[in-house]
Amino acid sequence: MFRLLFARRADWAAFTVACVLSLTLMSLGRGPQARAVWFVQHTLLAPVNAVVGWLDAGVGVYWENQKLKKRLAQMQMEADAMRAERVENARLRGLLHLSQENPSDLASARVVARSLDRLGGSLTIDKGEKDGILPNRAVLTPDGLVGRVDRSTSHEARVLTLLHRDCSVAVRVGRSRVDGVVQWEFGDRPMLSLLYVSAREDVQAGDDVLTSGLGGIFPEGVRVGSVTKVNVAENGLMKEVQVRPAVNFRSLEDVLIYMPGGAGLGPRMPAVESDVPDSVTQAPVPKPVPKVSAPKTAVPKTSVPTTPVPEAAPSDSVGVE
């Protein structure tokens, strides 16, 4: 047992020092006790207090720094969410503005899936037959034409974009009114080809390409894209026209489906700029003035008295011998 008591010599040494200090302080008066305590506190324990305070401050700064970093991360996430909401609100305001111009002809839908190809040849939207989305419905955005509905189920529909081989659109050049057909040619570039344009037709780079309304699927006047390059084919008879789509198909999130069974009018897209100055206006056509018929006045009938004519007396016949 004594072996266990004396095994921890450090504890016994500390205990002995504490006892000696206590007895020493008890034997002194109040004045020497105060001076001794002040000496121990400010001389012997001051470095220890400084080290402990420095460690405590360092630990406190560390945890405060961790809290600030966490708060900064939360604020950054909130800022990113607000920025994403701002972009989404701007996009939805554009869709709302377009749909309010003709609300009975447009139905909104959200893109829930897209094709695996890099260009985005097809999309899947969250509206189907129960929402009136049927095949061969035109799909568009405020920027321009997207494509058409290929097939639909009860709650979903597959959309072929302009960058799909099976999606051809009858179009018209806005400036020169040249008709043609826009179709995507095989390749890895998001470009369209304007086909069936004669070499004599007036088509230039920068011209806007709009839907012509021919074929009955796409409404007239929807922007398809702009002409980027015009060349004459090797045979010299046709032109090779390249068109850049107006829509970025890889970033689509919301679309509008044209419903021809609504008011019967296509969506009113921004008008194409005309060369005619604004001061030239068409003279108003005068409205026909209705004829005012004068009231008829009844004329009283006057009866004229008739005088009886006396009958002639019969004459005697005279015979000549």
Describe this protein with a few key phrases.
single chain, 321 residues, alpha+beta, Thrombin, subunit H, six-stranded antiparallel barrel, 29% helix, rod-shaped
Description of the molecule:
With about 325 residues, the chain is an alpha+beta fold. Among the domains are: about 5-45; about 105-260, Rod shape-determining protein MreC, domain 1 (Thrombin, subunit H, Beta Barrel). It is about 30% helix and about 20% strand. The chain has four helices and twelve strands. The protein has helices at about 1-5, 10-25, 30-45, 45-100; strands spanning about 105-115, 120-125, 140, 145-150, 155-160, 170-175, 180-185, 190-195, 210, 225-230, 240-245, 255-260. The longest helix has about 55 residues, at about 45-100. The N and C termini lie far apart (about 215 Å).
* Anisotropy-based shape: rod-shaped
Total DSSP E strands:
12
Largest sheet: 6 strands, antiparallel, barrel
CATH topology-level fold name of the domain at 106-258: Thrombin, subunit H
Percent strand equals 15-25%
What level of helicity do the residues show? 25-40%
The Rg value, from CA coordinates, equals 50 Å
Number of helices: 4
Structure class: alpha+beta
CATH superfamily of the domain at 106-258: Rod shape-determining protein MreC, domain 1
Q: If strands are numbered along the chain, what order do they take across the biggest sheet? A: 1-2-5-4-3-12
Rounded to the nearest angstrom, the distance between the terminal CA atoms is 214 Å
Average pLDDT figure: 75
CATH class of the domain at 106-258: Mainly Beta
What CATH architecture of the domain at 106-258 do you see? Answer: Beta Barrel
Biased composition (Low complexity): 290-310
GO cellular component, one term: plasma membrane
GO biological process, one term: regulation of cell shape
Region (Disordered): 269-321
